[in-house]
Design brief:
The protein is mainly alpha-helical. Among the domains are: about 70-155, Alpha Horseshoe (Serine Threonine Protein Phosphatase 5, Tetratricopeptide repeat); about 170-255, Serine Threonine Protein Phosphatase 5, Tetratricopeptide repeat. It has ten helices and no strands. It has helices spanning about 5-100, 105-110, 115-125, 125-140, 145-155, 160-180, 185-200, 205-220, 220-235, 245-255. The chain starts with 5 loop residues before the first helix and ends with a helix.
């Protein structure tokens, strides 16, 4: 006669319950995997059908993207870069005349070698063509053609970077000089103050502040003149212009 073993019975019940539970989880997991596989197969089928139905459109779009990328790199390396190199070579020759003070040659060349105006005409859209505008404006100032100077200085487009910032400020300051030469002192002073804002150093900023202050004095705007000279003392106390700023402040206050 078999004895009833309660502990063994409970163990068997638990084992059976666990097996049934695992079986349910396994079945559920298999069902989920089947559903996922069916969804993937359905998606692949739809994608294949979409490609089949729209193959020409997709190929055309891909070709368009490739064409745009090709045009960009082709423009940069086969067109833009060679033009920039040619412009830089031409600019270099004109710069040599400019450095020697031969401004007429620097502007127009000598028939064999180009001048700044040639660079502008042929490569005006390049970086070298842009700086040639600035050079040409200065040449015209030295040749006492203020109309030509104003035209080319204004055509120059500001550039980034520290050296570029100095040129940007000089360009605006020269435009101020032209207004001053023409007797329009208020516009001249405004340009000098604009040059101050473009100056990111302690050399050109006090220089243009002093020019602005003197021009304001000549225009009878003594309060603005005092403010310009005081800005030199407060913001650039170690500059050369600060040495006589007090003298100019006194002169402006007495007017």
């Amino acid at each position: 006669m078999l004895r009833f073993n309660q502990k063994r019975y409970i163990f068997v019940l638990r084992t059976e319950k666990t097996r049934n539970s695992m079986s349910k989880k396994t079945k559920q997991k298999l069902a989920e995997q089947d559903a996922t596989r069916e969804a993937i197969e359905s998606a692949i089928g739809k994608t294949e059908m979409y490609i089949k139905d729209n193959g020409k459109i997709l190929l055309a779009a891909l070709a368009a993207v490739i064409a745009v990328v090709g045009i960009f790199f082709g423009y940069k390396y086969l067109y833009a870069q060679p033009r920039e190199n040619n412009a830089a070579d031409m600019l270099y020759v004109a710069e040599q005349w400019f450095a020697r003070g031969e401004y007429e040659l620097a502007l127009n060349g000598d028939g064999n070698n180009p001048g700044f105006l040639d660079v502008i005409r042929r490569y005006g859209s390049t970086a070298s063509g842009n700086i040639a505008n600035h050079y040409a404006g200065i040449c015209y100032i030295y040749l006492f053609d203020m109309s030509g100077a104003a035209q080319y200085l204004k055509a120059y487009k500001p550039v980034r970077g520290i050296p570029g910032g100095i040129i940007n400020a000089q360009n605006i300051g020269l435009q101020g000089d032209i207004f001053s030469e023409q007797g329009d002192l208020e516009k001249a002073a405004a340009k000098y103050m604009e040059a101050v804002k473009l100056s990111s150093n302690g050399l050109t900023a006090p220089y243009y502040l002093k020019k602005a202050g003197i021009t304001y004095m000549l225009a009878g705007k003594n309060d603005a003149a005092v403010a310009a000279f005081q800005a030199i003392l407060y913001d650039y106390p170690s500059s050369v212009e600060a040495e006589d700023a007090d003298k100019f402040i006194g002169a402006a206050q007495q007017n």
